[in-house]
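Case 242 in the screening queue. Each case pairs one protein sequence with one candidate compound; here the compound is magnesium ion. For every case the pipeline is the same: read the inputs, emit a complex structure as tokens, and attach any notable structural observations.

Predict complex for case 242.
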Amino acid sequence: MSTNQEQRTSVIELTGATPFASGDNRLCFRHPDFPDRCIKILREGRARSLQASSPFYKRAMREAYFDDNRREYRAYQQPAIVRGNAAYDRHIARCFGWVETSLGNGLVTDFIADSEDEPAQTLEAYVASHGLDEPVRQAVDEFCEFLRRSLVLTKNLMPHNLVLAEDGGDLRLVLIDGLGLSTVLPLAKYVGYFARRHVEKRIQWFNFRLEWEVSDRSVSWRDTETRFRFRGVSPTYRLKGF
Ligand SMILES: Nc1ncnc2c1ncn2[C@@H]1O[C@H](COP(=O)(O)OP(=O)(O)OP(=O)(O)O)[C@@H](O)[C@H]1O
Ligand SMILES: [Mg+2]
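Case 242 output:
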């Protein structure tokens, strides 16, 4: 993770600014000082409502535990990223740490732009209009090979948490949300075998989800997902030493 976020002493004024996008948990703003970065702010009351709706055994955790921004920041500290054996910034927005804003603490990451300097399109939006065409299939394959090589740990790869950067005529997938582990035991963080299993399962789930995205969706995702079966780590993957 890059930690060289140039500090500015004043609070960044975001009150009244329009976020360029938002998700269930966070508002995303362009960074006023660095146009190639964005600032993510937790939506007001979001941590509290997640805490209230969590299972009873998690409810005792402090509210900060449910803060998506803090979780993501911690996920950037995972060994595969911190050790930096493989460059990851082609496929994962880099994190530059925290800034203080008028809306609270903000997490700064790369802003992924399209050729017009607008926010890059999500994979979800792309497949909704183009389907799984050849350029996007290639981008998906390249992204999956990157995960196998780097063993960067992610949660389930949701198509709205990946955006498509454009390199000349080629598409490149960049993960902008969803790093880390959602499993209870963090074995995959420390043991290669479990990391490979974890990554392979996310890849198979991702491809399964993409097939559903382009299907007629007559079966809901909730019902479809119950049919997902992890087929294990293929011998080629093991032999290649990923
Ligand atoms: N670094 C980025 N570069 C370009 N667009 C981004 C970036 N980060 C977020 N976005 C856009 O903003 C949307 C919401 O951002 P993000 O996924 O971080 O919010 P969230 O609230 O954590 O999402 P979720 O609803 O998945 O929990 C994304 O789906 C994407 O369209
Ligand atoms: Mg998201």
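Case 242 observations:
- The longest strand covers residues 95-101.
- The chain has a mean pLDDT of 91.
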